[in-house]
Amino acid sequence: MRIVKSITFDAAHYLADCPDARPYARMHGHSFTLEVAIDGEPDPETGWVVDLGDVAEALAELRDSLDHRLLNEVEGLGRPTLENICRYAAERLRARFPGLARVRVARPSCGEACEYEL
Ligand SMILES: Nc1nc2c(c(=O)[nH]1)N=C([C@H](O)[C@H](O)COP(=O)(O)OP(=O)(O)OP(=O)(O)O)CN2
Ligand SMILES: [Zn+2]
């Protein structure tokens, strides 16, 4: 089975060194959604794959590191693309949730998303 939980966050970023001086080379902001999927067999006693309360706790920590920040300054994130935000989240959640199967980061207002299948 697969359980899914998501958060939203708002953050600023810029993508320097773009070809043709694209507008996103300048600092601007987005609302992001970040969704994780965790696979596993439900425990026969608890009836859950993992406690969604634990997932909520881990996602709140992750959100704290991203929300209302300049993503270019977030340590360990690298160039703030959707791809690197997915990787950043996966690196922080993997050890705690070995069944982590997918991280999806989207910018709904732009119709853009990256899906990282682990
Ligand atoms: N492979 C990727 N390509 C691009 C990424 C990315 O994360 N991965 N990111 C960008 C820009 O950051 C992104 O497209 C946003 O650019 P922006 O100009 O801000 O987008 P919009 O104008 O469409 O969005 P608004 O919210 O309306 O400003 C580019 N490529
Ligand atoms: Zn952008």
UniProtKB/TrEMBL annotation:
SUPFAM superfamilies: Tetrahydrobiopterin biosynthesis enzymes-like. Its cofactor is Zn(2+). Pfam families: PTPS. Binds 1 zinc ion per subunit. It comes from the Bacteria. Zn(2+) binds at residues 13, 28, 30. One of its GO terms (biological process) is tRNA queuosine(34) biosynthetic process. Keywords: Lyase, Metal-binding, Queuosine biosynthesis, Zinc. InterPro entries: 6-PTP_synth/QueD, 6-PTP_synth/QueD_sf. Its EC number is 4.-.-.-. GO terms for molecular function: 6-carboxytetrahydropterin synthase activity; metal ion binding. Belongs to the PTPS family. QueD subfamily. Catalyzes the conversion of 7,8-dihydroneopterin triphosphate (H2NTP) to 6-carboxy-5,6,7,8-tetrahydropterin (CPH4) and acetaldehyde. This is 6-carboxy-5,6,7,8-tetrahydropterin synthase. It comes from Amphiplicatus metriothermophilus.
